[in-house]
Design brief:
This protein has 468 residues and is of the alpha+beta class. Helix content is 44%, strand content 12%. Strands 7, 8, 9, 10 and 11 form a 5-stranded mixed β-sheet that branches. The chain has a two-stranded antiparallel ribbon with strand order 1-2. Strands 3-6 form a two-stranded antiparallel ribbon. α3 runs antiparallel to α5, α10 packs across α12 and α10 crosses α13.
Length: 468
């Protein structure tokens, strides 16, 4: 006779054998372990260890005090030789000092996470749990009190977790928090797509693939000769402060490791030194290498990528450089003629794709209201249009539109001699220097914002894509 089942809730399948004619000792039930019928989730999914940077409560005030007391002129004097200022040395010294200060006030901790960890389990509850376990092992008389404190702590943690969850639905204008609340309530967990680096040569192959447009650029860039009386663009410290204060602190930093959180919180303390760096860059019409470097993280377009084109490039660039680009962009767009085509919707204030679709439908349906009429619509998509821009031709068109020669040379330097590397998990490719800014997709642009260059696209769209 064979009896199998989950006895006493142990999750063990047991086989019992009984047979007549067996000896007395063999007639006893013989239990044979076949296999476990159930394995707990905590056993199926081992704990994961993650390294995270912890910001203490006094970290940002300490940074503000540190930057406020810093004599930034020392870095400028160290990079000055006669009347010439080495912008590369000046910028690297400032950026390195900021990164060192951030490392001094932050802590790197290794956190162990388990699949069965409850969302309301806080550090205070974990402390009470350890106190309860210690009192139980020691046989202390305070065990009952520790157990009661643990129960009270769990109840309070659950109430606080519920209150925090309800706060996600208080402000209907905050779409991010609304979706976070919905995902938490429904138990939805987004699985981020990451590239699998089974092939050691994949990062280098992707880096060469992303820079393939260099082969079609046979015209090398040459700087324009500015007039001696031409006025150079200068930025004010207040403009830099306002741009820093609008930084999204959630965005990732670039190769320079200067966090947007630091620039936003310490905008008042860092505005003067970065204004000086930006103005020197504009006067010399050059950019430091750390502002033109990019780390590219490929994101698979589908679950099973088969070729290099199935990886979407996401470039991590300097946050400070993005702010610099926006300031220059505002200056360039202010010089554009007022005769811009009213049917151009890209890269214009208060214009979007929805406006273009609505205008197209309105014009088409208005035309079709007449009898015996029809409409033909031609949709054109340029393959890698922005990647194949010739920098020399671009700055020449900018010059015709009235943009200063020094600003044109700055844009030319911005688009050329850019260093890029591709990082797939822990593997990093060799550095490639390109003469065209071939990677357009930054992290901010990847998450549902317009793709393209912040600085030069309005000019290029105005001169090459006027469609009536």
């Amino acid at each position: 006779m064979l009896v199998m089942g989950d006895f006493f809730g142990t999750g063990i399948i047991v086989a019992d054998f009984k047979q007549d004619g067996m000896t007395a000792w063999a007639k006893e039930r013989l239990k044979i372990l076949v296999k476990p019928a159930y394995r707990a989730k905590v056993q199926r999914e081992p704990a994961e260890k993650k390294s995270t940077t912890v910001w203490p409560q006094d970290a940002l005030p300490a940074l503000q005090d540190c930057f406020d007391c810093t004599q930034w002129s020392i870095f400028r004097e160290a990079a000055t030789s006669g009347d010439f200022i080495d912008l590369q040395e000046y910028t690297e010294a400032v950026v390195g000092f900021i990164s060192k200060c951030v490392d001094d006030v932050t802590e790197v901790k290794t956190v162990k996470t388990r699949a069965t960890r409850k969302p309301w389990l806080t550090g205070e509850v974990c402390s009470l749990l350890k106190t309860r376990d210690f009192a139980f092992k020691a046989g202390d008389a305070a065990y009952r009190e520790a157990r009661n404190n643990l129960k009270k702590g769990i109840r309070e943690a659950k109430r606080q977790y519920g209150r925090n969850l309800e706060k996600n639905f208080e402000d209907t204008r905050d779409i991010r928090r609304l979706w976070q609340g919905f995902q938490t309530v429904t138990g939805y967990k987004h699985t981020a797509k990451t590239a699998q680096c089974n092939n050691p040569s994949l990062p280098d192959d992707l880096n060469r693939f992303y820079s393939r447009f260099e082969d079609t650029n046979i015209r090398r860039a040459q700087r324009l000769t500015p007039a001696s009386t031409e006025q150079v663009l200068q930025l004010s410290a207040e403009c830099v402060r306002r741009t820093f204060s609008r930084i999204n602190p959630r965005k990732a930093s670039g190769p320079d490791n200067v966090l947007g959180r630091v620039l936003k919180s310490c905008a008042d303390e860092l505005k003067d030194v970065f204004t000086d760096i930006f103005n020197i860059s504009l006067s010399q019409a050059v950019l430091p290498t750390c502002f033109k470097s990019a780390t590219i993280v490929p994101v698979p377009k589908n679950s099973t990528p088969h070729c290099l084109n199935d990886y979407r490039p996401v470039a991590l660039t300097s946050v400070a450089m993005k702010c610099f680009e926006r300031l220059v962009k505002d200056h360039i767009t202010s010089l554009l003629p007022a005769s811009m085509d009213h049917l151009q919707f890209a890269y214009r204030t208060n214009r979007s794709t929805e406006d273009a679709i609505s205008t197209l439908l309105h014009l088409t349906l208005t035309h079709l209201e007449d009898k015996n009429t029809y409409a033909r619509i031609l949709l054109v998509d340029f393959s890698s249009a922005f990647n194949t821009i010739l920098p020399q031709q671009l700055v020449e068109k900018m010059k015709l539109l009235g943009v200063g020669t020094n600003t044109c040379n700055w844009v030319l330097d911005f688009l050329t001699e850019r260093k890029q590397t591709v990082k797939v998990n822990s593997r990093t490719s060799n550095t490639i220097t390109t003469w065209i800014k071939v990677i357009l997709l930054t992290l901010s642009e990847y998450f549902k914002t317009p793709a393209g260059w912040i600085t030069v696209i309005p000019i290029w769209a105005e001169t090459d894509f006027q469609i009536s």
